Amino acid sequence: MLGVALVVIAVFAFAWFAYGLLGDVGRAACVLVVGAIAVGVAVALTPRLRVTAEGLAWAGLIALAIGAILISTIGGPRVSGELASLAAGALLFTVAGVGLGLRRIPLPCGLPPLRAYSLYAVFAMPVAVMLMATALPIPDHAQRFTIESALAGVTAILLAALSSTDARRRAPDFERIAALVVATVALVLASVAFVTTVDYGHDLWASAALLPVVVVAWVGVITVTYVRTMTRTGRPLPTGLRFVPVSAIIWVLAVSTTLILRMLPTSMDLETRRMWAYLPAILVATAAAIAACALPTRAVTTETVPTNTVPTNAVPTETVPTNTVPTNAVPSNAAEAGARRFAVSTAERVAAALNGSTVLLIMVCGEFGREGIPPLVTSMAAFVGLLAATTFAWMRATVPTRKPERVRRETTARPTGPYTMTPPLMGPYPEGPYAVTPQPVPQQPVPQQPVPQQAAAPRPALYPDPSPAAQYPAAQCPPSPYPPAYANSPYPTTPYPSAPNPMQHPLMTQPSIAQPTMSQPQGVMVTKARGVDFVGVIVTSFTVLATVFLFFDTLISPRPYAPADLICGAVGVVTLAAGVRWMMAWPHVRSWTALWPGLTLLMAPSLLVSWTSPLSFPRALILFGLALAVLLWGAIRGLQAPLIYGTVVLVVHLVTVLWPWLAVFSRQFWWVWLLIGGVILIVAAARYEASLRTMRTLATRIGQLR
């Protein structure tokens, strides 16, 4: 690489200093000759010295590019800049085509062609097209640059889609990925230039015509990443290449609202025109955020081996070996490979969620502070879009899925002692390892050896006597669990004298050593909720930011059509819907766990506002209807949280609303309350026992609700 860099620097220096000696024609000819010689030598050295040939090919192709640019400058000031750019682009395109042609030359022994030819074409052809597009008769510089960059991006897309790969190379898909990167850079320039053309200083319909060109070019980049696959593995191209196209499409469509604003008749009010211009951008951003939360992703399945399950709080079904390989590494059939190829990637979902939520947050914060109904409609529409995307994210989080979970089984050693059974030692036994299935073993008489009378060895007081002599008579001793071949093993045993039938339990004679407690990790497949993924966290975070902004903004500068309890109530509806979905998907979830956040956000703010503000008949009526509906819902469905919550809110709300009339009534007829209290005490005393039993029964029934 250093040698190639030095050669290129030398060519640039020669082209700079040789102008006074050789003139335009002479220096261009010299550079072209040097480049052609370098390329010819690289072709000749390719079968023997590939690294040297690669460097010479790069140096020669760069020299040819410099020569093409020098040829375009011949003619001096008499040649216009557009014509010179057209000539330079055509010559550079020709040199890139020559490089692709050299790639087709067959090499001996089946060697792959040099990578310099294809990589040079990937970078040179888009630049050549961009130079040739400079000659287009478009007076607006920003619009012309948008077209130039878009055409360069389309050229790189075609190279990525149509170029062939060679599996013999170390990275056969490198040229295709490089072409997509070049297309992304060119289209980013086109998108930025398009943003500058949407204002009032440029032609409206020319800028509007550029919008589909830029969007279709970005769609082409995404299409290539779906259609073309990796040469060796058959997997899709890196999904990270889709992040920038998805983000660019969302922002280009969002910025185009200025074009819509310019198209609307000026007879309309400015705020109304802004509302109708911003609503399409809100729809696009909402659709992007909802699609990111709702569309399925690529599922990674694992091959499992059913074994005994481990009881957990979840629902384990089958054991997963620790060396499990995801089955998406090698597609089992064409249908599965196609489904995985066209599955929505994580990069696309993150890009759609991040950029769509950002556009919606900007609309919420930017339009809510303006005066009038149209800005309020725009802001609330964007806020509803965020709430809808958040709802889809949390609905998706409740879906049951199978997840691997590692558990540990504690294996504790048996009580140790001189007669403790130990596992058999693996050794060169005649029959080899024992089979898993027990085989019937014929009973063979075992000769009893006379045991000399001697004093029994003292046993430690720490260990109890594990001898089965007290449980089994000598004549009814259980048969040996080991084959006779092991019982007649030539390995010596030294049983204790008090051990019954030592030949039937040969391993009881080995003193055991206490083993530490060991935990054996094991994987099991359990059924759990999918949970909120990273995309859901993004959308939820933007929704929380928008809610906090709207809440504090309404507290600082109250608006009659958007009070603070309305904002909290909208969030409460979404939270309550997510809680209901959790209870439907998971029957063991109790109502307090799933529903209390939604019920609190739905009714508590309105109740607090009714305490601190003058009485509002619409708010009081709506809160009364909500509390009554929640109470009836809890009573009909047998849900504890809505029943208690609705009852408390309904009672408190009625007392709050009726308190002014109650205060006036109490000042004039205070003795009525004493009469009511006395009657209640008399009735309670008369029916104390029955009332106590009824209250206990009622408390029990409420506690049994879900």
From TrEMBL:
<feature type="transmembrane region" description="Helical">
    <location>
        <begin position="114"/>
        <end position="133"/>
    </location>
</feature>
<feature type="transmembrane region" description="Helical">
    <location>
        <begin position="534"/>
        <end position="552"/>
    </location>
</feature>
<keyword id="KW-1133">Transmembrane helix</keyword>
<feature type="transmembrane region" description="Helical">
    <location>
        <begin position="83"/>
        <end position="102"/>
    </location>
</feature>
<feature type="transmembrane region" description="Helical">
    <location>
        <begin position="564"/>
        <end position="582"/>
    </location>
</feature>
<feature type="transmembrane region" description="Helical">
    <location>
        <begin position="643"/>
        <end position="662"/>
    </location>
</feature>
<feature type="transmembrane region" description="Helical">
    <location>
        <begin position="350"/>
        <end position="370"/>
    </location>
</feature>
<keyword id="KW-0812">Transmembrane</keyword>
<feature type="transmembrane region" description="Helical">
    <location>
        <begin position="594"/>
        <end position="611"/>
    </location>
</feature>
<feature type="transmembrane region" description="Helical">
    <location>
        <begin position="376"/>
        <end position="399"/>
    </location>
</feature>
<protein>
    <submittedName>
        <fullName>Uncharacterized protein</fullName>
    </submittedName>
</protein>
<feature type="region of interest" description="Disordered">
    <location>
        <begin position="309"/>
        <end position="330"/>
    </location>
</feature>
<feature type="transmembrane region" description="Helical">
    <location>
        <begin position="57"/>
        <end position="77"/>
    </location>
</feature>
<feature type="transmembrane region" description="Helical">
    <location>
        <begin position="276"/>
        <end position="295"/>
    </location>
</feature>
<feature type="compositionally biased region" description="Pro residues">
    <location>
        <begin position="439"/>
        <end position="450"/>
    </location>
</feature>
<feature type="region of interest" description="Disordered">
    <location>
        <begin position="403"/>
        <end position="475"/>
    </location>
</feature>
<feature type="transmembrane region" description="Helical">
    <location>
        <begin position="25"/>
        <end position="45"/>
    </location>
</feature>
<feature type="transmembrane region" description="Helical">
    <location>
        <begin position="204"/>
        <end position="227"/>
    </location>
</feature>
<feature type="transmembrane region" description="Helical">
    <location>
        <begin position="668"/>
        <end position="686"/>
    </location>
</feature>
<dbReference type="InterPro" id="IPR058062">
    <property type="entry name" value="SCO7613_C"/>
</dbReference>
<feature type="transmembrane region" description="Helical">
    <location>
        <begin position="145"/>
        <end position="165"/>
    </location>
</feature>
<keyword id="KW-0472">Membrane</keyword>
<feature type="transmembrane region" description="Helical">
    <location>
        <begin position="239"/>
        <end position="264"/>
    </location>
</feature>
<feature type="compositionally biased region" description="Basic and acidic residues">
    <location>
        <begin position="403"/>
        <end position="412"/>
    </location>
</feature>
<feature type="transmembrane region" description="Helical">
    <location>
        <begin position="617"/>
        <end position="636"/>
    </location>
</feature>
<feature type="transmembrane region" description="Helical">
    <location>
        <begin position="177"/>
        <end position="198"/>
    </location>
</feature>
